Amino acid sequence: MKPKRKTSAQEAVERMHDDAVVFIGGFGRGGVPENLIEAVCQKRLRGLTIVSNNAGTSSTGIARLLEEGCVRKVVCSFPLAKESVVFKGLYNKGLVDLEVVPQGTMAERIRAGGAGLGGVLTPTGVGTDIAEGKQVIELDGRNYLLERAMRADFALVKAHKVDPMGNLVYRKAARNFNPIMAMAADWVMVEATSEVAVGDLDPEAIVTPGVYVDAYVAIASAGQSMETAA
Amino acid sequence: MKPKRKTSAQEAVERMHDDAVVFIGGFGRGGVPENLIEAVCQKRLRGLTIVSNNAGTSSTGIARLLEEGCVRKVVCSFPLAKESVVFKGLYNKGLVDLEVVPQGTMAERIRAGGAGLGGVLTPTGVGTDIAEGKQVIELDGRNYLLERAMRADFALVKAHKVDPMGNLVYRKAARNFNPIMAMAADWVMVEATSEVAVGDLDPEAIVTPGVYVDAYVAIASAGQSMETAA
Amino acid sequence: MTATGLTLDQMAWRLAQELEPDWVVNVGIGMPLAVVPFVDPAKDIIFHSENGIIGMGPELEGTGVVDNDLLSAGKRPVSLIPGGSFVHHADSFALARGGRLDAAILGAYQVASNGDLANWKLPGARTGSIGGAMDIAIGARRVLAIMTHKTRDGEPKLVERLTYPPTALGVVTKVFTDLGVIAIREGRFILEEVAPGVEVGEVSAATGAELCTEKTCIMSLPR
Amino acid sequence: MTATGLTLDQMAWRLAQELEPDWVVNVGIGMPLAVVPFVDPAKDIIFHSENGIIGMGPELEGTGVVDNDLLSAGKRPVSLIPGGSFVHHADSFALARGGRLDAAILGAYQVASNGDLANWKLPGARTGSIGGAMDIAIGARRVLAIMTHKTRDGEPKLVERLTYPPTALGVVTKVFTDLGVIAIREGRFILEEVAPGVEVGEVSAATGAELCTEKTCIMSLPR
């Protein structure tokens, strides 16, 4: 197995383009690839569709992308957190579109995209606003929504450790959406806190096999784990 | 978290009953819970539906259950291996029913059962005998089969290590169907090669969280890993 | 009128008594978080956090250092119990929808007598934050709602039919309010317990649907 | 007539040349297994085994001890390459269907000129063993079939329309037989290479559909 492309954050995002669909890992501030996001900001892309659990908190993560005017649409489960001030400002002015997806449905739609499925049938959202425009399928007397698989052009993934083959492990709840997003994008970029040698990761404990990874950056994020509380 | 029920193979299978649907892990001879299977044989159950990748090889694993007359139906992907002599004998005499499921579809149907989904849409099997009687759904010009979720009354799972909370890790390719079967059965019994203390398993490397496990047996199988070649 | 009802701590204490030993329980953000400190550690409840924590331990306070990789769904620093583990988001919600949650504790805007739950979006609002509520509500074996009995404007929140956008249909099994404990069975609200000092008639009047009070007891509070 | 064609080893050698560096490749059981020893290790091919091995190493021989926990899909003892890993069955087939397999090498009963593949069940048989073939055939970016050009009875296996039960429709990209290499493009068989010593007309006669031979070269074999 040949090593994956190890690169800088700036080089990693080079092939990203306007109007792309982009998965970004993270839940709150855990597992957010902040350095890759910053590199996208600096590239001044436009018209991105961002798929992520939140719509950015304070001025970090996705809030940075929104602030820089890179984003046309946000697909997420929790857009209106108290700290999502940048998103709320743009959304209220009609400057950014929003698709709200139940968190578990979002996870399954992404996983289905990665697994080459067309979609899944879920009981979640039946009889709610989320069902609007979706096909309802009855099986054994129970109703399910047909939820379509979701893929992205690019995924920005935050990992704990990476080896030169692209194998990844995560840290605690920073795992969140990262492994399934890595499975479901055409080009997967990883920001890992540290790099280890081939063979240092236990084959039984690798969460994302390197076959899913296209490029990686090894860099410790300032604003990530173990920061001092404000 | 209270310890799970640690028990003998005989006690573990006590609540199993005739006509139950039973998941059994394994692929070839890797990851087959042979001691639990033997306990089921000794209980002389009847009318079981067995869901497993193979239909038993030589006279081990599922072949034992078939030999003992416990099985009414086998659901599997690979029934006709050269060594599946017991199955072929019974099948040719019409003494056991068979449902053949593509291996990846079987995996997704089981996972869907575990994930509380009604089913998945898969491109696998479109235009083949497997599609018979199944709903075809077209999305963006591509056809998918609606494959129903599958659950079982009981799962027999083979793990490498178990802790008293029921957390599991597996060994190499003996992982196979075991983790997804553990997610999708109402009562999950585990046969682990060894037992370790709580905290000995790395929380990042646990494959099956203990919440899925109902009872476990710690026992080294004679016919399992590292046997001398015949 | 509800001045005689329970405090939030008392509501939370009462709900905590509902949890049985060894249950796997998901706790929503907001009011449900108040329940956790009242849960008897001897019950060995396994808390599930939607962001992939199985065996979430108590919240950490005043340590000065925040581990952003170990936050609750409410984004507060927590710990992991011995024997706990981490899974990714698809596996976390597989657990929630797949029937391994014995109970979910959720906040609510409205609960209907058929068990319908509204807790994510205000009527007429352009949008709201669903988070994991729809999946958890549909998946948990028991949905325990905790909310005030009435809105700030004095409108009943226990209703015959939702007027707020629903989160999930027919899922709520019990409601814990400042006035009492209301079970939902066969499409009816059943007042199982009334808060000490509150009249049963007062609860009926504050409820927007028929309330069965035949077997109502007075709630026992500690001390 | 096919006495002048390639041996199995030669067919396997030729197919092995088709694999490009760093590809992720699934190898089916049966004839495809013959390909692996001919693959240049310098190409760093990552072999995927359906039973959850990513980075399957060469088969082990004559060690006397068999590790049943590390067998190929064909149930033969194998190794894991450095940097390899294990996944469960749902994740293994997610990889196969999800587009991360650059190629799959599969045996075949029949291949049709529209790319339809038959390899799991004989006509009229009550059943057959599918295994992972349907998922892998539908998921891999390229399906490379390896088979003899004709059946033992002399019937063509490259056909205009399948008469055997299909495994997957429109998936085969190239066929490697004892007589040559046949690409499938726009619903047509294209004889890219003919085995040394075999006449192009002989291949056409052995093929049950139109065979485009405009740009056929003679295959170069080693030595």
From TrEMBL, chains C, D:
Gene Ontology molecular functions: CoA-transferase activity
SUPFAM superfamilies membership: NagB/RpiA/CoA transferase-like (SSF100950)
Keywords: Transferase
Family note: Belongs to the 3-oxoacid CoA-transferase subunit B family.
Superkingdom field: Bacteria
Gene3D superfamilies (alphabetical): Glutaconate Coenzyme A-transferase
Pfam families: CoA_trans
Protein name per Swiss-Prot or TrEMBL: 3-oxoadipate CoA-transferase subunit B
Lineage: Bacteria, Pseudomonadati, Pseudomonadota, Alphaproteobacteria, Hyphomicrobiales
InterPro entries assigned to the protein according to its UniProt record, in alphabetical order: 3-oxoacid_CoA-transf_B, CoA_trans_fam_I, CoA_transf_AS, NagB/RpiA_transferase-like
Organism per entry: Nitratireductor aestuarii
